[in-house]
Amino acid sequence: MMFLSFIQLLALSAPGALSALSTVEECGVNTLSSCGPAGRFKLNTTSIPEGVDLNNIRTCIDHPVPHTAAAIEKRSCVYEPDFGCSNSGYCWKRCNIGGGGEWCWTAANDGYGDWYRCTEKSQCGLWQACGAGSCAACGCSC
Question: What pLDDT, in 10s, does the model give residues 84-116?
């Protein structure tokens, strides 16, 4: 009888144990209305850099600014200034100072956290990390 109870306990706990082995964490609520077409952030926890706080990953993968606004938000190349605050209230920075005009939206938590918000340029800076992940707004481009 005790053996049967052990087997039952093992069978009941197996699904939880198997799901704990997954290296992909889905953050936030999966609704198209809240995250847009790119959806929520799906993170492979084995490939993120050391020091990233897994409890502070942004919910939505893509940047909230649509790619139809002002020039900086259309991903036109930017040659100066080196960083700034967009008209929509998000920080950005140039990626290759002295090189091409590639730039990125910046995000907390080494690029995996919330997008940096701003009301003025002084709230942004080159020290901020580019947004990380597999999204249209992540990384440097123009």
Answer: 999 999 999 999 877 789 999 999 999 999 999
Alpha-carbon distance 72 to 51, whole Å? 30
Separation CA 19–CA 42 (nearest Å): 15
Residues 130/93, Cβ–Cβ less than 8 Å: yes
Choose among 59, 109, 101: nearest CA to 82.
101
Residue 48 maps to a domain: yes
Pairing of strands 129-130, 103-107: antiparallel
Residue 133 near residue 112 (C-beta atoms within 8 A) = yes
Residue 141 lies inside a defined structural domain of this protein: no
Number of domains in the chain: 1
Output the pTM of the full model.
0.67
For the chain, give the mean pLDDT: 72
